[in-house]
Amino acid sequence: MISSNLGYPRIGEKREWKKTLEQFWAGQLEKELFLKQMEDFRLRQLQKQKDKGIDLIPVGDFSLYDHVLDTAVMFGLVPERFDYKGGEVSLETYFEIARGTKGAVAAEMTKWFNTNYHYIVPELDQAAPALVENRPLRFFKEAKQKLGIEGKPVILGPITFVKLSKGYSNLKEMVQLFVPLYKEILCELQAEGVEWVQIDEPILATSLLREEIELFADVYQQLNGAAPDVNILLQTYFDKIDYYQEIIALPVQGIGLDFVHDRGGNLVSLKNFGFPKEKVLAAGVLDGRNIWRADLAEKASLLAEIAEIVSKDRLIVQPSSSLLHVPVTVESEDTLEEVLKNALSFADEKLHEVVLLTKGLRQGIDSIQEELAASAKAIQALNESTFRNNQQVQKDIQNLASFRAEREVPFNVRQALQETTFQLPLLPTTTIGSFPQTQEVRKKRQLWRKGELTDAEYEKYINAEIEKWIEIQEKLGMDVFVHGEFERTDMVEYFGEKLAGFQFTKFGWVQSYGSRCVKPPLIYGDVSFQDPMTVKETVYAQGLTTKPVKGMLTGPITILNWSFVRDDIPRYEVANQIALALRKEVELLEANGISMIQVDEPALREGLPLKRENWDDYLNAAVYAFKLATTSVQNETQIHTHMCYANFEDIIDAINALDADVISIETSRSHGELLSAFEKNTYDKGIGLGVYDIHSPRVPALEELMRNIERALQVLDPKLFWINPDCGLKTRGIEETVAGLEVMVEAAKQVREKLVVKK
Fold first, then answer.
1. From CA 365, how far away is CA 758, in angstroms rounded?
2. Distance (Å, whole) CA 672 – CA 648
3. What is the spatial order of strands in the sheet that 231-235 belongs to?
């Protein structure tokens, strides 16, 4: 009966990891010092887990960018467009794969299952994998030699790794290429005296075919026989596992199951089918993806149920998943109200809860009675607070039928009205919303937040930035403008700060991708509209030009999916609360003369449940919330939305059901693969497929953009097609932004002229 952790946040309590990375990329830190500082971060995180009392401490979960990319380069998998000569992959090449170069596009990036973390997609087109570095062994030896910690190496499993990759046709054949390399890793770990190895196979929480489960049996039979002295902990998370009986029969020494996000399925299977007496069950009973304090009595009761089936000496107590998805510690949060702070649990606090529950199992529930009472009291205090008892919000939710959730007329009628209203050219050009947030912009915001800049001074500065970029858009010849969002930090945080029911932390950062960290708001109470959120800046921008300026909002599902959401009521109810608040903002924009309004839903696809059986419920709720927020406008008002990083073929019907007049979708990193969804499915509304990747520090070539546009026009109606980058330009520099948009406008112009000639 021991405690364990699956993974720890990489970024540091105050994002020290991020800052070090960016200093290195900027050439401000020598390579040797960079690596030494990263080692120090890594060791401090291990020592902290040891000090907390965790028995099985993960090693190798730390990364300089992404754990999937780490696995790829461990096997020498470098795309051909990068200059790789074999052998151990250099640090420089590692970052080039992730970030791109002037001559080579970065590897594709997409969501890690249904979380808010993005991974680098391995490319296996001409894979000839070899073990160029035993990464788990290196980190195990480091922890043992420098801290005396005999850790639990963490490895991404071969089947999940291949399933998350691209560029192969036969899953079984591709996986078998990697099996000898995993055997080699395990043999070397065995020689070093490793006791437990955590092999992550979260793909088991998705909907798999019978032959894929048979592949698991074959692969793990081979791995188990390779290093008989090493105990394999096959770790699953994020949902229940199907084929429960087959999976618990796999030839491994332990199975890790998620008892938080399984919708009760894993517990039902455990009760119905039991668990092998010779195996260890790693029970993920604490939420690794949310930030609420656990009801320890409830969790102790769950463990007691599990212990009736699996003997206590065969139990490991742990979080439901890696703690990569939550901030580091609540201790740094000194500005939160006590009733909220007491109800929070970040990574460090979750480890403490793991240790407490393990103690309760070992020594009896009476040994932690004081802690049980404290957790119950904290949760009750928040539930009974005024924050969670807004009578008007709850009345509106009970009477949703009184709010129209459909446009008055169908799209083809609206389209004709909007063509007359806006008089846009063929292939209109626009951007997704944000323009560069320079160091000066961030500094001015910090000064304003500290009170060192008055409201009037800050507003004057923001207006000057808006004026500058309206002028730039005029000179570029853009057709539809944006105001640039200089007043905004993050697309969710900005709205959360202005809506009731949200709270923000000082240091509640989590990694999104690479060094990009976000600070998700906490939706801790009933959500309601308070004051106009975007009207002032948008109306100011519109007053500077005769071109249409889009109002820019973040949609209800994205706000939901990119926040830490209260867990005392259904998530869809929270989404509808947000939608009703946004509905009021949409109506205010329209009333103030803004007749193009973009309500972004980049996270709609991200929130899709892992099990297909649960998709319809989610998509129906997501579509309803979007329409609840957007459909009260006049027919002439054009509703836009934006989505990114996803396989849209799965949700093309839901995208159509949103009934947005124009949707823009990221497609550049996937090299146009998204177009196949539109070749197989008819889409008859306005659409802009992002024609160049804004996440790489490069200016696209004219020929590249023209090729992307002309490829899209093979399957999409030119009268409905818009030209835009694939995402907001917030993270890019001014010069590269202007240069990129200049190329984009020229590409649109040349393709437009070709179309006119054809007519």
1. 79
2. 12
3. 2-3, 315-319, 280-286, 254-258, 231-235, 196-200, 152-156, 58-59
User: Using one digit for the tens of pLDDT, what is the confidence trace for 33-62?
Assistant: 999 999 999 999 999 999 999 999 999 999
Contacts of 378 (CB under 8 A, 6+ apart): 293, 342, 343
**CATH code for residues 410-758:** 3.20.20.210
Question: Which DSSP helix (H) or strand (E) runs through 598?
Answer: strand 596-600
- Would you tell me the crossing angle of helices 210-226 and 171-191 to the nearest 10 degrees? 20
Q: H/E element holding 503?
A: strand 500-503
Mean pLDDT of 604-614: 88
**Angle between helical axes of 734-758 and 702-712 (0-180°, round to 10):** 50
Q: What is the pTM of this model?
A: 0.89
DSSP state string for 90-149? PHHHHHHHHH--SSSPPPPEEESTTSS-EEEPPB-TT-----S--HHHHHHHHHHHHH--
Q: How far apart are CA 217 and CA 131, in angstroms?
A: 23
On whether the CB atoms of residues 743 and 705 are closer than 8 A, the answer is: yes
**Are 559 and 496 contacting, i.e. CB atoms less than 8 angstroms apart?**
yes
DSSP string, 501-526: EEE--SS--EEEETTEEE-PPEEEEE
- Number of Cβ within 10 Å of residue 173's Cβ equals 10
For the chain, the distance separating the N- and C-terminal CA atoms, rounded to the nearest angstrom, is 75
Helix, strand, coil distribution of the chain in percent, nearest 5: 45, 15, 40
Q: Which of 211, 286, 39, 13 is nearest to 138 (CA)?
A: 39
Compute the distance between CA of residue 383 and CA of residue 362 in angstroms, rounded to an integer.
31
- Cβ pair 129, 171 in contact under 8 A: no
Q: How far apart are CA 633 and CA 588, in angstroms?
A: 10
Contact 652, 665 (CB under 8 A): no
The DSSP line for 170-219 is: -HHHHHHHHHHHHHHHHHHHHHTT--EEEEE-GGGGS---HHHHHHHHHH
* Residue 541, both tokens: 């921008």
Q: Which of 295, 304, 282, 278 is nearest to 154 (CA)?
A: 282
One-letter amino acid identity for 424? L
- pLDDT single digits (tens) 62-119: 999 999 999 999 999 999 999 898 999 999 999 999 999 888 999 999 889 999 899 9
Beta strands 109-111 and 118-120 are antiparallel
> Ramachandran region of residue 369, left (φ > 0), alpha (ψ -120 to 50) or beta?
alpha
DSSP β-ladder status, 196-200 and 152-156: parallel
Token pair for 469? 């970029």
H/E element holding 317? strand 315-319
Q: Which of 307, 367, 368, 377 is nearest to 342 (CA)?
A: 377
Whether 638 and 596 have beta carbons less than 8 Å apart is answered as: yes
Catalytic residue annotation: 695
Tokens of 618: 């989610």
